[in-house]
Amino acid sequence: MENGKLSDHLPPLLRQLRDPLGLGRSAQSRRSARLTARTETADKVVQSICPYCAVGCGQKVYVKDEKVIQIEGDPDSPVSRGRLCPKGAASESYVNSPLREMKVKYRRPHSTQWEHLDLDTATDMIADRVIAARRETWEAEDDQGRPLNRTRGLAFLGGATLDTEENYLIKKLFTAMGAIQIENQARI
């Protein structure tokens, strides 16, 4: 046989009979025997948590040359025991997508164009607006003089991608600011 052994050209049934323990040699070609997994060539492995839902499945993130090359379930995770749903298993594309936004975009009122802002400027704008909305809508007491200490000018709708701890902290923050409309999309 040219560039191969006779066993490479046997019918599948005969190859299976030559591998009675089913260890995969019957299905393995010479090419696949030479392949190495991407995870073997990684420079480092970082433990992480899947970003998609509140379950918090453990992930192993394989990095080579400071770029994510593979994401797999973490078998040491007590939550997921190495399993990932289809979205979690595809989260490498979330990180490496050429469509991923890497800058803050802002569209001013009545504008038709987006502009890029640095993160500090965008954060300051959000903080200023939260403080102003709270100040302008603060209700210290009702008509009969009973204390309210609330604002209806702020609300928060959380997402199912937040874990329990994040939702707890957000609830504490918005309650401390006096907001009463605090909800989570996972509960609706």
Mean pLDDT: 87
Largest sheet: 3 strands, antiparallel
Strand order of the largest sheet: 1-2-3
- How much β-strand is present in the residues? 25-35%
Shape: elongated
Low-confidence stretches: none
Give an account of the 3D structure.
By secondary structure, the protein is of the alpha+beta class. It has three domains: 35 residues, no CATH class; 59 residues, Single Sheet (N-terminal domain of TfIIb), CATH 2.20.25; 81 residues, no CATH class. It has six helices and eight strands. The strands form three sheets. It has a three-stranded antiparallel β-sheet. The protein is elongated, with a radius of gyration of 27 Å. The protein starts with 11 loop residues before the first helix and ends with a strand. The mean pLDDT is 87.
